[in-house]
Amino acid sequence: MSITIKDVARQAGVSIATVSRIVNGQKGYGEKTKERVLKTIEELGYTPNAIARGLVGRETKSIGVLLPKLSGLFASKLLEGMEETARNEGYSLFVCHTDSKEDRAIQDLQVLKEKQVDGIIYASDQLSESQGQMLNSMVCPAVFVSTQSLTHPFPYVKVDDYQAACTGTRYLIEKGHKQIAFIGGSLEDPIAGKPRDEGFRRTMKDHHLKVEESLTAYGDFRFQSGKESFKNILKAEKPFTAVFAVSDEMAAGVLSAAYEQGISVPDDISVLGYDNTMAAEMAIPPLTTMAQPLEEMGQKAVELILSLRENKENINKNEIVKHRLIERKSVLERSKTKGLFL
Amino acid sequence: MSITIKDVARQAGVSIATVSRIVNGQKGYGEKTKERVLKTIEELGYTPNAIARGLVGRETKSIGVLLPKLSGLFASKLLEGMEETARNEGYSLFVCHTDSKEDRAIQDLQVLKEKQVDGIIYASDQLSESQGQMLNSMVCPAVFVSTQSLTHPFPYVKVDDYQAACTGTRYLIEKGHKQIAFIGGSLEDPIAGKPRDEGFRRTMKDHHLKVEESLTAYGDFRFQSGKESFKNILKAEKPFTAVFAVSDEMAAGVLSAAYEQGISVPDDISVLGYDNTMAAEMAIPPLTTMAQPLEEMGQKAVELILSLRENKENINKNEIVKHRLIERKSVLERSKTKGLFL
DNA sequence: TCCTTTTACGTAAACGTTTACTCTTTTTAA
DNA sequence: TTAAAAAGAGTAAACGTTTACGTAAAAGGA
């Protein structure tokens, strides 16, 4: 069907080896030959076949990405960072939506293995035991982004969630808040759930503040769960002046629930988010939030993959990226907010 | 390095042809041989090499997707629909972020061609002349989703934007609104920009309503442009009671600008969005919006690709999917809204 | 000048599959 | 029983590259 290197070779009256060398910018041919071949390539509209290349060269210039959720601002921002870097390095991205389902992820890993990807990026989800085993059995490097695994020590790039939660909580406290509600991720999640909870509790304790259990709730980082969590917190009718939700989507959920109940943010209560996705920008009021540098993380993840491909020796390639508090409009000083159930 | 079909064959004492047949579920071997080979495969942990398969079978089970923007709810919802269907059919997705840049898209197309994808999905952006030529020169089928091209008639799946804009406008009019502001996409965009504008104007005219030009503005479908467009509209100080923004992100932008100006939605003005992404759900108030069935569109797009691969003959494969108005809280009847500058 | 090195190529093997042909052996049908 | 058909298996070519190796001619050095 399509034009191959053989066609070019025949047409230009040279061997395929010469064409190959010219195409790949190696040396071993004269200037005139080069021009003739290049012209033939142009005329015939020859495009090298990356599949054939991949077979002999044993690299495919493609990277597999596993994401629990594709829709959602978190994933897309991460993905954008990866795409940009991958593209610049000549790589393409296979993106897979695991939906946090064990079997889907396994299937994805299997497919990526068959497709001989040069690396795998496992993003923002917990790794199960069997997934870890699959990852280990792969010949290509794997890295985590915005997650990690205690049992399977692949390199990761993430923020220090514990510290970030501390920073966020401290920020609220410094603004004068003492009665703070908390909406976390699942405590069963040892990576993104537990540490943020611990950071929150630790910081409260360090400031001799009590965390009222009925002011805590745990969701799945998504909008709806934030909304419901906040409604539950409201039911307790315990006094509070601020709420820390550990994802912007959940924070948007509290904004939404608050709006339904006629509670004003930030006049009645302050709300602090986490992630700094577009949800934070678009929210009303715009969310003050603990930023994760998601594009940068995506970028670092593919850079990490690439560097692992070169130096097989790679102890301690982990990257802790810096979190940063972005002030917008959803948090006010204690003195300026009314509070609820006081 | 890794285990190949040869290793399996040798170990099991059969030829590679037999292993191949067994792996691919063809026939031509005995039950006992099959079991022995399967056991060997298990023991050795053999995984077929899709690259080699792709070379001989001339299909790669992968599809390239070109999106102007990865971050953003629109793209991610579309992508989720595609991924689901692709996965079920055994395909993987290469996703590319063109950023609406001519050269990036060309580069992407080139790479996808080299990687021998089985199909290309071009999403939600205008096709340039040279991109169209590249698409034509590809051996694999290409389809549009949420866009189309007048000069390059590839099959597409999209809503009828003109009709959808009509429906949206009519909805507002039926609610009693007469002075309606409009925030459209670029009029230079003959696919997603112009038709919505025309639908709006036509419907206004059909109802003997005047469109006040200073109440119209044109953005790029993104949040910021919606925000700025609305601020410009405000500057005109012309009376209006509702605004129709042709993307949820832009509608969220008007919500945001309105909030900043102390304008209440929906008490002062009604706002109608377009797309029905999560932005509409999360907005405050939740947006009434013209829904595009994005997952379904993603699904249809890959189905279309797949069907094009079988029947080479494919006249009129276009799919117009149904738009639908989703009522939430951002539009009120005229009698219940105060309006601005009256 | 002659020998050595470099340059400019061509040949052919390899990469891991699938598949069209073979060739036996077994089963089926008459 | 026997011819025909089916089943079970192997051989080898092909897919489109890259690359190690070989070789002849050109260039360089003394």
TrEMBL record, chains A, B:
Keywords: DNA-binding, Transcription, Transcription regulation. One of its GO terms (molecular function) is DNA-binding transcription factor activity. InterPro entries: HTH_LacI, LacI/GalR-like_sensor, Lambda_DNA-bd_dom_sf, Peripla_BP_I. Residues 3-57 form the HTH lacI-type domain. It comes from the Bacteria. SUPFAM superfamilies: lambda repressor-like DNA-binding domains, Periplasmic binding protein-like I. This is LacI family transcriptional regulator. It comes from Salipaludibacillus aurantiacus.
